[in-house]
Design goal:
There is one protein chain. This protein is of the alpha/beta class. The chain folds into two domains: 139 residues, Aspartate Aminotransferase, domain 1 (Alpha-Beta Complex); 223 residues, Aspartate Aminotransferase, domain 2. It has 14 helices and 13 strands. The strands form three sheets. It has a seven-stranded mixed sheet with strand order 2-8-7-6-5-3-4, sandwiched between helices. Helix 4 runs parallel beside helix 11. It starts with 5 loop residues before the first helix and ends with a helix. The chain binds pyridoxal-5'-phosphate (PLP). Pyridoxal-5'-phosphate binds next to helix 5. Belongs to the class-I pyridoxal-phosphate-dependent aminotransferase family. GO terms for molecular function: transaminase activity. Keywords: Aminotransferase, Pyridoxal phosphate, Transferase. This is Aminotransferase.
């Protein structure tokens, strides 16, 4: 249709949302579905966080706030950055927004101009390339290797750079692969970014879900020079099981923070006011919810890893963070969309096709579900692999 802008015509709808919606519709019709496609913790938001939102509502915290968020929340976030990430941000450098998704979008819109190239390691989180396209930029995809734990090397990054490169997007821990970059790897990538002043968008939404001896490192904390180039994105969705609250944030050097605030001024205005009060309760309340969630996911991760390793015709690498497995399915000889369609319609298992993440020889399965669902879903997936 002529009236749709060419930028939006280029954009692909979110396949992850499409698959989860299809599975939800099947469930609503009373069909059995083993949902391994999800991207959110299955447990509810902790009670003390919900209670804080209720109190805020009762106290009339129902009006606009400063576009970057209420000062108390930005103060609490500045304290969080020091405690968790060894990063000193003035509260004014932090902008609270409607989910980490919008935080990523604001960051991209603030930096990317028509024709600018943005380097994105593949498999990538589904929305990055589409956001870049909406901003008028050009996604440059760097295919990572399973043998390297699905991580982009500094050499690959350097080879993909051109004079038009404006930004690189890093996501650690990663959705969909669960890869966690080490400090050494981030330093090497950082060196390359510094050589040409490439802005780094560091999406750290899964920072609290890192397992075993692995450690989350914020690239901005590695040097003043990297701090000056980095927009750090984070949010409440995954750590506090607050996906529906739509609460995320950016932290950036001052000029970039001001640019992001301008976008926020003229778009969303502010994140929901009573939600911001709940976010303070999340940050300042008991954090055992997070460690319990992590422990529980670690059990499921190990269970799933053992099961997947024993299935013929597929390959997996151990994910170090987040709550996903990215499974190499190239040997099954099916396009990922075809594979997940069959898996859902015939075996009642929902998974996300790798094509959604720019990698057609794989699928994503998540373990943010009950052990029972996981167990049955994997049994059916094993049967599917045997029969194909
Ligand atoms: N970044 C990554 C890597 C994600 O996986 C997600 C959600 O799935 C987001 C950002 C968006 O998070 P939010 O729900 O806070 O918008």
């Amino acid at each position: 249709m002529d009236s749709i802008s060419s930028r939006i015509q280029e954009v692909t709808p979110s396949l992850t949302l499409a698959v989860t919606n299809q599975a939800k519709a099947m469930l609503a019709r009373g069909e059995e579905v083993y949902g391994l496609a999800g991207g959110e913790p299955e447990v509810d938001t902790p009670e003390h966080i919900k209670a804080a939102a209720i109190v805020a509502l009762q106290e009339g915290k129902t009006k606009y706030t400063a576009s970057g968020g209420i000062p108390e929340l930005r103060d609490a976030l500045a304290a969080k950055f020091i405690a968790d990430n060894n990063l000193a941000y003035d509260p004014k450098q932090i902008c609270v927004t409607a989910g980490a998704k919008m935080a990523c979008f604001n960051a991209i819109l603030a930096v990317v101009e028509e024709g600018d190239e943005v380097i994105i390691p593949t498999p990538y989180w589904v929305s990055y390339p589409e956001m870049v396209k909406i901003a008028g930029g050009k996604p440059v995809l760097v295919e990572t290797q399973e043998s390297n734990g699905w991580k982009m090397t500094a050499e690959q990054f350097e080879a993909a750079m051109t004079p038009a490169t404006k930004m690189v997007i890093l996501n650690t821990p990663s959705n969909p692969t669960g890869a966690v970059y080490t400090e050494k790897e981030l330093r090497e990538i950082g060196e390359v970014a510094l050589s040409e002043d490439i802005i780094i968008l560091s999406d750290e939404i899964y920072e609290k879900l890192v397992y075993g001896d692995n450690k989350h490192v914020s690239i901005a904390s590695l040097s003043q020079e990297l701090y000056d180039l980095t927009i750090t994105v984070n949010g409440f969705s995954k750590a506090y099981s607050m996906t529906g609250w739509r609460l995320g944030y950016t932290a950036a050097p001052k000029p970039l923070a001001e640019a992001i605030d301008k976008i926020q001024n003229h778009t969303v205005s502010n994140a929901t006011t009573f939600g911001q009060y709940a976010a303070i309760a999340a940050l300042q309340g008991d954090q055992t919810f997070i460690s319990d969630l992590r422990d529980e996911y670690d059990v499921k991760r190990q269970f799933m890893f053992q099961r997947l390793k024993s299935i013929h015709n597929i390959r997996v690498v151990e994910p170090k963070g987040a709550f996903y497995f990215f499974i190499y399915t190239g040997q099954l000889g099916l396009k990922s969309m075809n594979l997940t369609d069959k898996l859902l319609s015939r075996y009642k298992v929902a998974a996300v096709p790798g094509v959604a993440f720019g990698y057609d020889d794989g699928i994503r399965m998540s373990y943010c579900t009950t052990l029972d669902v996981l167990n049955e879903g994997l049994t059916r997936f094993e049967q599917f692999c045997r029969e194909h």
